[in-house]
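Sorry, I am new here, but would you mind making up a protein's amino acid sequence and the tokens describing how it folds?
***
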Amino acid sequence: MHTLADIAKALNRAPVYLRGLQTRFELPVRKGAAHTDQEVAFLRTVIHLRTLGVSEDALLKLWTLEKKLLQLLNIDTTGSPTWFLDSCGQATHRQRRLLLTSYDLEMDLDNRHLQPGLNFGERKKELFAGKEMGEDALRVLELCLEQRDRIVRDLAAELPHVRAAAAWASPLAHD
């Protein structure tokens, strides 16, 4: 478990900046040493993406879509109050994981398909099926992948500039 001060030091960001991220991404705000490794991993991912020039709006849009997809797949019924953070920091099978939540969908995301009828937990009966109300997991997955692809394209375009900037700054940092 980590304090906000520990996280701020590890991520080289002010605590007030991290609190702002917690608020905007609707993360739990905890007191004392109550922050999990998964929360730290999520914040690190967001900071890395922001450092590489990805807009916070793009990240918030993807975050909303990923959480919606996980809700449609009933991942939110695991009983964990931070179910949307529980996979953050996982590095295996990156091609199968969502970008921000790191949830493993157990399929290559570049294939653009999801097994219909996938259900990870019991849900209350609704008056109308989610599909009839316009909430289709396949549609939300496609929106997630489109947003992720935009972010990855932006990263690919920015990466040579970041490498050049790091090479330029490296001798200055050693002086």
